[in-house]
């Protein structure tokens, strides 16, 4: 298995673990299983505490835990400099970070504030560009960057509002970044995950309705699991996907293919 993925001892930065339900945590667990050296970034002390608690179950590894707030260029630069100083080459990044103000998800979309729009874009879309630029000098052997997106980027999903527009920008950024850094052997892709009950998902008012609707109508007649999204993320970080870049890969029980 290790040979198939070729991720053993590769340095993969995982951004966005808030707790054990986070897509980033599911991905980190799967990466540890294939022997990758996972480096975690966290935003808040609260997430650090949760991370330390979860990692207590893994006695034989001592991952690097680095603070990084993606709203700050300085914080991003500092984090990637520190990561590179400690581990050298970076081989992959999981960008699993997004945020919008609660009122911009609850209010009518037409009422989205200028500040709320800019904040959602900055945190959820621009951050991928800033992270790719900060990491690029340390990805000297090429590598793979994977971000998390959602169907709300291309379809109107009630309550997703400003985050849908941010995800649309994120998906476009994936394509422009892929075209740009491909010459450095770096691939950039997005996973469009089906609905999963996480902290971020709690902010979407219609989330339970979405879960029920998918169960009723998706081709697989069920929601996806954290493990399914994590496994595909590992594939997209690995040599198994070496010919794919600039792509949005759906892990959503096939829901996105439906018309009505
Ligand atoms: N849960 C779902 O149904 C679903 C579906 C599709 C896509 N996604 C996407 O997956 C990604 C991960 O979300 P999740 O569902 O695991 O929820 P989560 O709340 O566990 O993770 C979101 C993470 O973003 C981090 N974050 C927010 N602002 C940040 C900042 N300024 N700097 C650094 N980190 C910051 C949070 O600390 C948190 O760890 C997000 O991009 C989300 O939009 C989620």
TrEMBL record:
GO molecular function: enoyl-[acyl-carrier-protein] reductase (NADH) activity
CDD domains associated with the record: ENR_SDR
Species the sequence originates in: Rummeliibacillus stabekisii
Classification via PANTHER family: ENOYL-[ACYL-CARRIER-PROTEIN] REDUCTASE (PTHR43159), ENOYL-[ACYL-CARRIER-PROTEIN] REDUCTASE [NADH], CHLOROPLASTIC (PTHR43159:SF2)
First-tier enzyme category under EC: oxidoreductase
Chemical reaction(s) catalysed: a 2,3-saturated acyl-[ACP] + NAD(+) = a (2E)-enoyl-[ACP] + NADH + H(+)
Transmembrane segments: none
Positions contributing to NAD(+) binding: 16, 22-23, 69-70, 97, 167, 196-200
Residues annotated as binding substrate: 100
Pathway linked to the protein: Lipid metabolism; fatty acid biosynthesis
Entries under Pfam families matching the protein: adh_short_C2
SUPFAM superfamilies: NAD(P)-binding Rossmann-fold domains
Keywords noted in UniProt: Fatty acid biosynthesis, Fatty acid metabolism, Lipid biosynthesis, Lipid metabolism, NAD, Oxidoreductase
Name by which UniProt lists this protein: Enoyl-[acyl-carrier-protein] reductase [NADH]
The protein's Enzyme Commission number: 1.3.1.9
GO biological process: fatty acid biosynthetic process
Top-rank taxon, per record: Bacteria
Keyword Lipid metabolism: yes
Family according to the record: Belongs to the short-chain dehydrogenases/reductases (SDR) family. FabI subfamily.
């Amino acid at each position: 298995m290790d040979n198939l993925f070729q991720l053993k001892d590769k340095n993969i930065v995982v951004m966005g673990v808030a707790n054990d339900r986070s897509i980033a945590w599911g991905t980190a667990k799967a990466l540890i299983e294939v022997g990758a050296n996972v480096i975690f970034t966290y935003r808040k002390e609260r997430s650090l505490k949760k991370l330390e608690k979860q990692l207590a179950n893994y006695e034989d590894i001592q991952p690097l835990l680095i603070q990084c707030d993606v709203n700050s260029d300085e914080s991003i630069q500092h984090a990637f400099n520190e990561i590179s100083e400690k581990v050298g080459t970076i081989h992959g990044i999981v960008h699993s970070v997004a945020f919008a103000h609660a009122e911009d998800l609850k209010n009518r979309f037409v009422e989205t504030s200028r500040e709320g729009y800019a904040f959602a874009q900055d945190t959820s879309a621009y951050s991928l560009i800033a992270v790719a630029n900060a990491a690029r000098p340390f990805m000297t052997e090429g590598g793979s960057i994977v971000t998390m997106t959602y169907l709300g980027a291309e379809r109107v999903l009630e309550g997703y509002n400003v985050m849908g527009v941010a995800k649309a920008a994120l998906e476009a950024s994936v394509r422009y970044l892929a075209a740009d850094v491909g010459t450095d052997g770096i691939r950039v892709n997005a996973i469009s995950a089906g609905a999963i009950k996480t902290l971020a998902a709690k902010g979407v008012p219609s989330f339970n309705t979405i879960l029920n609707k998918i169960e009723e109508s998706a081709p697989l007649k069920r929601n996806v699991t954290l493990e399914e999204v994590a496994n595909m993320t590992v594939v997209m970080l690995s040599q198994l996907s070496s010919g794919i870049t600039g792509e949005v890969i759906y892990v959503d029980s096939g829901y996105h293919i439906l018309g009505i």
